[in-house]
Amino acid sequence: MFSIQSGRVNNRSLQLRPLTIEDLEQVLPIEQRCFGGYWSQSIFETELKTKGCYYVMLQDLHNPKNILAYGGFWQIFEEAHLTTLAVDPQCQGIGLGALLLGHLMTMAQNQEAHWMTLEVRPSNQQAIKLYQRYGFAELGRRKGYYPDNEDALLFWYQNLHLAEAENCLKEHHDQCLAKLRAQGIELSLKNVAYLTQGELS
Ligand SMILES: CC(C)(COP(=O)(O)OP(=O)(O)OC[C@H]1O[C@@H](n2cnc3c(N)ncnc32)[C@H](O)[C@@H]1OP(=O)(O)O)[C@@H](O)C(=O)NCCC(=O)NCCS
Fold this sequence. Notes:
By secondary structure, the protein is α+β, with helices and mostly antiparallel strands.
């Protein structure tokens, strides 16, 4: 089991790979803990089968049943819309969310997105800090967007297609890997760069 005890990560190898329907058994409890079960099995299944939807996850390389984080986006012409991003609460705060977000942005870049948008709760300061750290800016507010009536802040990352963004993402990626390595975590990437979920099989 990948676990963190006294700030130290015990297991050392993580794999980043596309999310599949077989992974949902492990993903749904994280969804429950992070968002209270906002997305059901059938919502995930629809997302995973839909063209233009891209989902990836981080798992313990030596224990594939142990999924630590997942996220994804829709690609709609020049826009990539981040639909979800979640790190198992046991593993938050060590750099996995930053790593995953950077990778999703790179995937969107590879799909020729010009910008990325997302909604976030104003109360979710942890997520807002992460997005701002990557250079996302607030674009507007959707009133009463969430089921409990909290507003959503609409954030966007402009000019994702420019070389400047590419350099920035490379820099962030190196920093993320260095931060994880300092905690004894190595990363392996598998089939994630260009594939859509439908192309996996
Ligand atoms: C938001 C979330 C994805 C961030 O992932 P994470 O792995 O915990 O974050 P990281 O360790 O990669 O930290 C990235 C940045 O986030 C911010 N951050 C992380 N933990 C934080 C905390 N406890 N308090 C404040 N800021 C924090 C920091 O800016 C940090 O950058 P730094 O490393 O330079 O300090 C994760 O906490 C999560 O899954 N939350 C629940 C689900 C959710 O809210 N998803 C986003 C929906 S919009």
